[in-house]
Please model this.
Amino acid sequence: MNNELNAVNQWLENQVGQTILIRKEEQGDLDETRVQLEAVEYSEHVPARDEYAEGSSLILHGPGHVINEKGDIPLPRNTFQIYVDGLHETETDESRINLTTDRAKYLIFKLP
Model:
């Protein structure tokens, strides 16, 4: 795990037991997901679950909901996966983290 990824992982580990909000921007779409973070896992080789190829990922464990205008949708399998291959920019402070990969931009912050 490189230094940037290690900093992201450490920030997330510090949020275990908290509720976080994840804003993900990918191909012009903006998704928001709320997760009650129970655990953080790093995996070098995660098999594809959907249209994505396999790759290194941070897997956030805990119940959550995808937030949309039609109402909240429960998070499948109580996990949120962040593919981190191509991670090339991170910025962290006490209350939030920004990360950019080849696929998407994420803003993650803890909720009060």
Q: What stands out?
A: DSSP finds one helix and ten strands in the chain. The chain has one domain: 3-110.
